[in-house]
Specification:
With about 550 residues, the chain is of the alpha+beta class. Helix content is about 30%, strand content about 25%. The strands form 4 sheets. Strands 1, 8, 9, 10, 11, 12, 13, 14, 15, 16 and 17 form an 11-stranded mixed sheet that branches. It has a 4-stranded antiparallel sheet with strand order 4-5-7-6, covered by helices on one side.
Length: about 550
């Protein structure tokens, strides 16, 4: 779909597709009839294809399908969901590294690179390529230069070691329980050093500008087309070290309007809708009984919460924050906003994360308790406050109305402010929101990964509540690299209790990972970072 096609024209085209078997709508006729082409509608776009830089969903999905990492998250079949798979905690599988081991009581990771794997250029994948990619992450301007020292205690490229052409080692300062998960992230994609260096300049030694639009990796797919605002096309790689995937072509169509995505599914003009959210729970519910379609959902680690800026009154008062938690009508929001595609949040940790406890929180809807806490706080209304939400986040928009009504019962005058995603993020990073609806998904399913980014004083760009507690900071610093699992998870319970007592977040819900697709699709895999890999997908 061209960006210049208005919605009325779009709907005319898709309506005509009903009589023509979907052929009138781009995807082209060849795509619609080719069983080895997967046509996907998404609500996202690509910011950059540089693994050390990307933030947008489109960037992550494209990189994840065009690049291999040293190892990957292992997936297992899901009981009662034939043809679907999901990751389990602390399970990995070989990829570019055919095996791995540890030395120095776990402080050194040693990877044996798979012999015979080649880049599209024909050059072999070696330990030198692995070192280049980790060196680049640590030294280029992207956020990985901050993540690598923090999570795996590596601060110098000298700690990335080539022992021979097919042996690569990471020498950490000390053992890190998150190390293998960090290595698995698509940010650490293995790329062809010579291809990247060929596009470097004096002012851009890591070829960041070229990497925004290009791919230089080894993976099941290669980037065949990247037309911003229109589509991304991936084609299966020739000479890939694994057997060729079933789908030889993936067409990712940018369809910004959700109504249009629903219509395309109903007309069978596409195979699947992906993205976050992709489809609202209300629309997913309406498609459950649609002939020729099926709905797949599993629990996920994405958190949604009411974000109270603790640096701004009245949310600098803990009793006000507690009152807000008692005023949230979560039992009304779950069925009326999420339609069964979510779970109540009872902790600042995701409910699938090791160390999670759902028994520590006292909060439940109790408007009289909320009023009493406001009185004890000495705060009298009406208190004017803007509640910022993002346009297109349909669950946030619907839930905000429920929250607005209940907060006004305890003394607030709530004005719902709708912002574009870009504006919302810019304001949030600067601490400009007083009250907002936030979401966060931890790419590494570890309690301390989640806690450090969301609650540590030094996490300036991700600690949206601007929470600062020296006691919690110390606990996070001490626990990040704790190798005693019992002690590590016990400390996570202490951290949860601190945050719950301080009512740092207004607890809302955890998403389910939900996809609506044609009934003949299988092989869909859910990993910890939530982003699709299409290698195992096929038609039944």
């Amino acid at each position: 779909m061209s960006r210049r096609m208005d919605r009325r024209s779009f709907l005319k085209v898709t309506a005509g597709a009903a009589a023509l078997g979907g052929a009138a709508f781009p995807p082209r006729r060849s795509e619609a009839q080719d069983k080895r082409t997967l046509v996907v509608a998404w609500d996202t776009d690509i910011d950059t294809l540089d693994p050390a830089h990307f933030k947008a969903i489109g960037g992550y999905v494209t990189v994840a399908n065009c690049y291999d990492t040293l190892i990957g998250w292992k997936v297992r079949p899901i009981k009662d969901k034939p043809g679907f798979f999901r990751s389990q905690p602390a399970e990995w599988e070989p990829m570019i590294a055919e095996s791995w081991s540890t030395e120095r009581d776990g402080a050194t990771l040693v990877f044996k690179i798979r012999k015979g794997a080649k880049f599209p250029s024909g050059r072999p994948v070696t330990a030198h390529a692995a070192k280049y990619c980790f060196d680049r992450g640590l030294q280029s301007p992207g956020y990985m230069r901050l993540v690598i020292p923090s999570l795996i205690q590596v601060g110098s490229p000298d700690q990335f070691e080539v022992r021979d052409d097919y042996t690569f080692a990471i020498k950490m300062n000390a053992p890190s329980p998150m190390a293998l998960d960090v290595v698995t992230l698509s940010n650490n994609a293995i790329m062809d050093p010579e291809e990247v260096k060929a596009h470097a300049t004096k002012d851009d030694p890591w070829a960041g500008e070229w990497m925004k639009r290009n791919v230089a990796g080894v993976g099941p797919y290669r980037l065949a087309k990247n037309e911003p605002g229109v589509e991304v096309v991936l084609e299966s790689s020739k000479g890939y070290w694994r057997p060729e995937p079933y789908f030889q072509r993936i067409a990712l169509k940018f369809v910004p309007n959700e109504v249009d995505r629903v219509l395309l599914l109903k007309k069978k003009a596409i195979d699947m809708v992906v993205g976050r959210p992709g489809l609202s729970p209300k629309n997913v519910k309406s498609l459950e009984a649609e002939p020729g379609l099926k709905v797949f959902q599993v629990p996920d680690t994405t958190c949604h919460w009411l974000c109270m800026n603790g640096s701004k009154p009245p949310f600098d008062n803990v009793k006000v924050r507690q009152a807000v938690n008692y005023a949230i009508p979560i039992q009304a929001i779950l069925p009326n906003v999420l339609y069964g595609y979510g779970t109540q949040m009872k902790s600042p940790l995701p409910h699938l994360t090791p160390g999670y406890s759902g028994t520590l929180s006292p909060y439940k809807y109790d408007i009289e308790k909320a009023k009493q806490l406001m009185k004890e706080a000495g705060v009298t209304g009406p208190i004017a406050v803007d509640l910022a939400i993002r346009v297109g986040f349909t669950t946030h928009e619907a839930a905000s109305v429920w929250i607005q009504r209940e907060l006004e019962k305890i003394g607030f005058k709530v004005n719902i402010v709708r912002e574009t995603d870009a504006t919302f993020r810019q304001v949030a990073i600067k601490g400009g929101h007083t009250l907002s609806m936030e979401s966060f998904q931890s790419w590494v399913n570890d309690p301390w990964y989640h806690l450090v980014f969301n609650f540590h004083t030094k996490s300036k760009f991700t600690n949206a509540s601007l929470y600062s507690n020296p006691v919690l900071d110390k606990l996070i610093d001490e626990s990040m690299h704790e190798t005693n699992q019992e002690k590590r998870l016990g400390s996570a319970l202490v951290a949860q209790k601190i945050l719950i007592d301080d009512a740092v977040w207004g607890f809302l819900w955890y998403d389910s990972w939900t996809r609506v697709m044609k009934a003949d699709l299988s092989g869909i895999e859910k990993r910890w970072d939530t982003f699709e890999r299409y290698y195992a997908a096929k038609r039944t």
